[in-house]
Amino acid sequence: MPHTADARVEAWAPTREGCIAQAVAGLVETFADASGAPATAAEDFRIPPGPDEDMLVAVLDRVIYLVDVTGQVPRHADVSTVDDELRVRLEMADPDAVEVTGAAPKAVSLHELRFTADATGWSCSVTLDV
After folding, report:
1. Alpha helices by DSSP H, 7-121
2. CB–CB of 51/40 below 8 Å?
3. Can you give the pTM of this predicted structure?
4. Interatomic CA distance for residues 118 and 89, integer angstroms
């Protein structure tokens, strides 16, 4: 990104829910490598129905909040839709088991936010304030 305090995440998957889960993985990869860390806890939350972009931002905002408040890092995300709301389950890793590679994001920017579907699946692009 042109601004040193920004990071850009792009994700894609066959489904909307899969794309959101990949965006969570991309967010984490901007500051940590949690791939080898064991899951030590789980965080479950729901996002109410709304426009797809708003739901994506809400999930990413919640991940940023959890990292900031708990210090734990998501190592995997499962996203599903039930009754039009998103249900998210994050497998969290202890920060001592995660390799920190940069500063954790502080917020999701709405600038140039994109979340769309086409014949090949879903894709999104989001800017994170670091």
Report:
1. 16-29, 52-70
2. no
3. 0.94
4. 26
